[in-house]
Design brief:
CATH superfamily: Mog1/PsbP, alpha/beta/alpha sandwich
CATH topology: Protein Transport Mog1p, Chain A
Structural class: alpha+beta
Helix content: 25-40%
Strand order of the largest sheet: 3-4-5-9-8-7-6
Number of strands: 10
Distance between the termini: 85 Å
Shape: globular
CATH class: Alpha Beta
Radius of gyration: 27 Å
Number of domains: 1
Length: 194
Amino acid sequence: MTLPSPCTHALAAGACVATLLVSACGSTTAIVTPSTSPAASASPTAASQPFAGSGFRTDIPAGWQDQTTNPSAVAALTGSGTVLMLLASPDRGVIVARTTPQPVADDQLAQHLTSIVPPGAIDVSPAEPVDVDGAAGVVITFVVIPTGAAAQEDEEMVVNQAGNTYEIALHTAQASFARDAALLQQVLNSWRWA
């Protein structure tokens, strides 16, 4: 009588274990494949990138692009003042940081915000206090519905720091506002005055 080799015993034992595992888990096996839906691409997996601006530094959210040195992107912005940071999202939202042409007094920040809300804006929130790395300011949100276009939602804030008034704003499609506002909060959480 010839005995099977040790390798044959190992293969047979492995086949039995595999059979038992398949049997214990049921007859169907789930196959996981990467999704190609837009929702999957909205959850960036890359790490955020550092941004060094004039008077501050922060992090660029994963998946967003720094457009600060793109003259056509900066020229497309409305408003006045010096643009210090322009970040663009894959869903066409933007985060802008700029200094105002003239500093605004601390007790006039809420009035300044009210003055930059475009005519026809709706759902304008009351000015609320905001803190950006220890600098106190105010923030509002509002919705703009351009003629023949999708509604836009904005979050605008102004803070005073080192003799300058900084405007920090998010402009995005109303449908993307919750997601982009959370990413703006990431930018603010990593914000450090230089």
